[in-house]
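Please decode residue identities from the backbone states below.
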């Protein structure tokens, strides 16, 4: 489907709350992915009148204009809608199910735009040739379904038949497309293929959310295999390609045994001046047994080397590398054992590595917990190699020095004394040079950048460009200047943590870098975002949860509308014609409301028929 179909799907997807009628029976029973949308934001907090003023939707074609207007289209903007993805006969398909209040009104509107394909069992099928999209209309719902037709080219077809002309290939392609289209319409109309019944999906859509995402991992893997098989087609690929497909298919089938009952769920809410996200990954007991203990907590000693003053952003990760290494090795050993012909050899290699390699020693080199912090910009003197021409017109290498403003960063990693072995190896390969209590990263590849490695007395490895830290604070750290106790506690409570001060980043960029007018305008649009936070932790043996938050400046409107307006402004700025037209306006995204009424061309006169008997 092209951009037009994508816009259509996006608009309808954003148009129905989760509290109304259940359209599960219109969803494919084998779909592994469903995005469900709550239209409360659009119908109550945003309003179609505001949405249609956005430039990215304003120039929508007649189809979008019809479906935009719920009164003219007969679409129910107060009910549930779902976007789904599915692989059918190795073809990737994508669809949208929206509720209908007046099927006859919608039928009349669609007949003026789409080609009527068929009417089967009380359902009318429309076909959009341009987008390779079907619209299946019943009494209570409209199902939009698009599929990706086969991708074989004229050149690959010529390998099978060297006398094939381009015109003949076009005819064959059209015939194949029609067969595929008719087959998929039949599939979509067959009740046996519809009706999503999954307790985990029901649990997801019951949550109070404006937008929810459900992914059934167990269903998804077989469909990935089918789609991959469609990409690597028999007769058009080499023997090695087919062998690669056999290997990956075998591995995926074995991997599927680790994902029985696994699913992912995400809920997003658009509050006023705030966007919140909650997500959980539910794993199978088999995978949970394999990875139990991987997620841990950051060692508090790392905080001592993270400066809290002028902090722009911080990322923390806490994994037990010993458990991670062992579980990964065990998983790959099992997966490789499933590979045809090479399985036994692969297992033998893993058995040998198990004897030779000391997992505990490797896992203790870098224990797995680390913190990366980025602070305010600072001027750094850098040396680099340039080339100059002498009097004999020969180029010679010349070392030059320049001053640049760069962010101050520090990566603090929890290690053991064995890390000294790695540092010795880096010295032997002349990748680092020892200085007074620390190391400089200096080699021809990276030049003389202000980069340092340091190993503290409490077994913390520091990779940084903070000269003050490595020269004066290796013994004491930043102590009272370290990150706040509140942020330390948030990091300790989660095995994954990210926090970015968007306002501080924006001000830092504006103060320290020369910006074009366009850059300033784009930066100004993003300035509405104040903070971005994401954190995640294990809440049970099989469940890992994420919590996310995007805090916006006070706007007195829905955060979704704010984000759409920002996107619309950036969209206009990226278009030179629109940007030029906007120079004389104070607000580049709002224009006066059009007083012209939309008029749809009259369809050819036909004999009146009885009211269609739509199937419920």
């Amino acid at each position: 489907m092209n951009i037009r179909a994508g816009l259509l799907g996006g608009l309808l997807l954003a148009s129905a709350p989760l509290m109304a009628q259940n359209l599960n029976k219109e969803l494919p029973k084998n779909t592994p992915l469903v995005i469900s949308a709550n239209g409360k934001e659009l119908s109550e907090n945003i309003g179609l009148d505001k949405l249609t003023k956005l430039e990215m939707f304003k120039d929508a074609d007649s189809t979008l204009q019809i479906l935009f207007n719920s009164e003219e289209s007969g679409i129910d903007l107060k009910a549930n809608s779902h976007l789904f993805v599915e692989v059918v006969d190795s073809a990737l398909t994508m669809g949208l199910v929206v509720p209908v209040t007046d099927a006859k009104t919608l039928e009349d509107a669609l007949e003026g735009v789409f080609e009527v394909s068929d009417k089967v069992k009380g359902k009318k099928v429309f076909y959009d040739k341009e987008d390779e999209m079907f619209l299946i209309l019943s009494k209570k719902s409209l199902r939009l379904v698009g599929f990706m037709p086969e991708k074989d080219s004229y050149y690959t077809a010529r390998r099978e038949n060297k006398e094939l002309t381009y015109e003949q290939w076009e005819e064959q392609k059209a015939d194949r497309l029609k067969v595929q289209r008719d087959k998929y319409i039949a599939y979509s109309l067959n009740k046996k293929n519809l009706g999503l019944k999954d307790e985990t999906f029901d649990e997801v859509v019951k949550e109070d959310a404006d937008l929810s995402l459900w992914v059934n991992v167990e269903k998804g893997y077989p469909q990935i295999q089918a789609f991959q098989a469609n990409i690597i087609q028999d007769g058009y690929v080499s023997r090695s390609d087919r062998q690669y497909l056999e290997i990956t298919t075998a591995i995926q089938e074995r991997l599927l045994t680790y994902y029985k009952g696994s699913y992912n769920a995400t809920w997003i809410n658009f509050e006023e001046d705030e966007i919140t996200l909650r997500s959980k990954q539910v794993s199978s007991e088999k995978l949970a047994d394999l990875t139990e203990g991987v997620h841990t907590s950051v060692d508090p000693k790392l905080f001592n080397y993270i400066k809290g003053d002028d902090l722009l952003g911080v990322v923390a990760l806490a994994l037990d590398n010993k458990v991670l290494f062992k579980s990964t090795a065990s998983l790959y050993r099992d997966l490789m054992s499933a590979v045809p012909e090479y399985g036994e050899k692969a297992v033998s290699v893993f058995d040998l590595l198990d004897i030779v390699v000391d997992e505990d020693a490797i896992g203790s080199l870098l224990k797995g917990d680390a913190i990366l912090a980025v602070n305010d910009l600072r001027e750094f003197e850098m040396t680099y190699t340039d080339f100059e021409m002498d009097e004999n017109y020969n180029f010679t290498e010349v070392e030059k020095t320049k001053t640049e403003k760069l962010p101050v960063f520090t990566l603090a990693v929890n290690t053991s004394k064995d890390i000294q072995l790695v540092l010795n190896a880096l010295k032997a390969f002349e990748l680092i040079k020892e200085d007074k209590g620390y190391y400089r990263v200096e080699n021809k590849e990276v030049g003389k950048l202000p980069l340092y490695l340091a190993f503290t007395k409490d077994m913390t490895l520091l990779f940084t460009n903070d000269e003050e830290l490595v020269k004066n604070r290796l013994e004491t750290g930043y102590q009272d200047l370290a990150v706040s106790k509140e942020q330390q506690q948030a990091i300790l409570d989660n095995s994954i943590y990210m926090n970015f001060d968007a306002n501080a980043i924006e001000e830092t960029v504006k103060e320290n870098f020369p910006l074009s007018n366009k850059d300033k305008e784009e930066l100004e649009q993003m300035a509405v975002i104040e903070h971005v936070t994401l954190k995640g932790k294990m809440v049970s043996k099989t469940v890992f949860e994420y919590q996310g938050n995007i805090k916006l400046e006070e706007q007195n409107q829905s955060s979704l509308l704010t984000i759409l307006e920002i996107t619309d402004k950036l969209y206009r700025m990226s278009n030179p014609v629109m940007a030029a037209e906007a120079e004389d306006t104070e607000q580049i995204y709002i224009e006066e409301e059009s007083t012209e009424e939309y008029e749809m061309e009259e369809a050819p006169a036909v004999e009146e028929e009885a009211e269609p008997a739509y199937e419920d």
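Observation: Confidence is low (pLDDT under 50) at residues 1-21, 582-614.
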